[in-house]
């Protein structure tokens, strides 16, 4: 089903998916748990469905599968702003939502034969467990900077392509964010309607040059003919030494979502804790994780549909770092 979904993307039909847990015959607890992970992060159209006469396979049939499903679907729902933006690009430009790894790394001949991993857009690499009884998976990382999407910890590839064995117990599907990406996330709710009422967050993953870019498309999620009732935002980040800036610029504003609150901004790949951090010129409390080199701050005053400037810097290796300035 993975190769089928990826093929349909290439054919220009992005909203596709297989029947999670299988259609014919009876599934198993382990198979269904692993399959919903694939469906949540690999099927744009994701549903559980099977034939008359087959054993029930609703996700609540097994407690373990119910727990796995909640975790996988929460991850999917948190990514909805990013996935919805990908669908906008697919509609307006003919690009793909899920895509083969070689689409992003065509010069890497190893990626040409990979059909058990895939990319979500250009930013996320998914490496599922597909073998019975396995609690690890051999995943290929093309030459880039990569971070574990859940923990934020950088994968030690040193920018070189390589195979790495990843731990993947039954409730885990490995997902990695590519350096150079900026993703808009949203706190997941019980339904999509609930999710759209929840706060946003911004995740910046710096590449080898200390830069990242991203974008966001917003509309009401329901209208067929949107017209001018849409909002588009462009994001960029750059660093120099221990000083950096993050910019969000509204390109077009014709729609206001149910919630506009951005509650958190996180930057992965910051080598050391800066002395200060400012959001729209106001200094904020810094959170820095020495283990993952992740810099974060709470930003409840920031609106998703307005421009934002975040800067950080301070003392590093005895040299005085400077503050970036930005003029709209």
Report on this model:
Helix content is 19%, strand content 33%. The strands form six sheets. Strands 12-13-14-20-16-17 form a six-stranded antiparallel sheet. Strands 3-4-5-9-7 form a five-stranded antiparallel sheet. It has six helices and 22 strands. It is of the alpha+beta class and 328 residues long. The C terminus is likely disordered. It starts with a helix and ends in an 8-residue tail after the last strand.
Number of strands: 22
Query: Termini distance?
Result: 47 Å
What coarse outline follows from CA principal-axis ratios?
Answer: globular
Q: What does the main sheet amount to?
A: 6 strands, antiparallel
Strand content: 25-35%
- The neighbouring-strand order within the major sheet is 12-13-14-20-16-17
Q: Share of helix among residues?
A: 10-25%
What is the gist of this entry?
By secondary structure, the chain is α+β, with helices and mostly antiparallel strands.
List the helices and strands and how they pair.
Layout: H1 2-10, E1 19-20, H2 29-42, E2 47-48, H3 63-78, H4 80-93, E3 98-99, H5 101-104, E4 118-120, E5 124-126, E6 136-141, E7 146-148, E8 162-167, E9 175-178, E10 181-186, H6 192-195, E11 200-205, E12 211-218, E13 231-240, E14 243-253, E15 261-268, E16 276-279, E17 282-283, E18 287-289, E19 294-303, E20 308-313, E21 315-316, E22 319-320
Parallel strand pairs: 1-2, 11-15
Antiparallel strand pairs: 3-4, 4-5, 5-9, 6-8, 7-9, 10-11, 12-13, 13-14, 14-20, 15-19, 16-17, 16-20, 18-19, 21-22
Helix pairs in contact: 2-3
